[in-house]
Specification:
Elements: E1 9-11, H1 17-30, H2 49-53, E2 57-60, E3 63-66, H3 68-75, H4 88-100, E4 107-109
Antiparallel strand pairs: 1-4, 2-3
Amino acid sequence: MVDHTTQLYKLARTPSGRRLWTYMAAILEVTEMDKGKPFPLKRFLKNFQTHLNAGRIERVPEGYRLTCSGQGYFQDRYRGGNPQYVERAAVERMISSIRTGCGEGDWVPLT
């Protein structure tokens, strides 16, 4: 569960391509959005309009939440053959960076 007193970190510059898909997967796990919990996602990412438009993410009073179709969409990224495939080990490294602020890239405290 996300403890709002725990300091999390984000990349200073949003990545692109596979690194963005990996970053998104890690964010969804750290915030428990992948389990249906709401989170103010704009703290991590400024632009996820494509996912809002497609009905994968919805606005709720507490921030944003994955819809059922969104949960399936992002979970499918772990399946080989998906063009936006993410490796579990890479997601784990990204999760560690979100929690510690250490790792590849320029990490800044989440505000």
